[in-house]
Amino acid sequence: MTTKQARWKCPQCADGLLAPTRPRKDDVRRYCLPCSSAKGRLVERIAPALEARRELRAASTREKVRQKRQVARRRANTPRKQAQRKYSRQGEYGMPLKKECARLWKMLAKMPPTLHGAGRAISIVTTSKPPRIKLMERGWEVVTVGDEQLISGVDAGYAYMGRGFITIKPCVSWETLAHEIIHMAGYRYHDEAFYKALKWLTERRFKMRIDFSTVTRYGYATDRLIKSQIHDLVKAEFAVINPVTPPTQDVINNNTEGNRQ
User: Fold this and answer.
1) Range of the domain at 53
2) What is the 3-state secondary structure (H, E, C) of 129-198?
3) 261 in any annotated domain
4) What is the pLDDT of residues 196-226, one digit of tens each?
């Protein structure tokens, strides 16, 4: 097989000769011996054609990297990505999710022992960190209506018990966040014990009384009852942090209630 060759030239005297495109380090043709002898150090020849090809490849690589970064920046600034960055940190009325989650988790450590399941909940809360909060990838979209960008979807969350994190949809309500935190404290089922724990946490958080006199069966209707009774309190507290109410709230309230686990 014929070895590819190129013309190698000395950068000082311009003397050239043909040599392989990838000569060995100890190949005598790689160096200009007269110039090396005169200078006292090895003078290495260069291949202008190979250098030009390398420069073209480097320029092509730089252009591809620039285009990829440009596409990545464009994708990172889509309305959906902007919503993901925003609502992974804040919920309804600008509620700071991480701060509120840590606050509720700390409150659970003071549950009265008379509540069913309180011992286990206190054990879980005192021996583990507050759950991490992640945004659901599916089940919601950014919809542009006029000059406003609304979030289509419903208020929902899911507690990964034993795995240490909660997934939520954008603009999650306080009641949904508290609902999932009760799950993370060891209450798996939506039974009477679960909703009594949620009632206690809500009352302690907002220093008010939740009326369960109309409750005949525990379930998602109980969540809606709690949410209706604390809505004004939640809005009054968190609207101070973020005076601009997310336009998604009316959309969420007017749609069907979300699923929780």
Assistant:
1) 5-76
2) CCCEEEECCCCCEEEEECCEEEEECCCCEEEECCCCEEEECCCCCHHHHHHHHHHHCCCCCCCHHHHHHH
3) no
4) 999 999 999 999 999 999 999 999 999 999 9
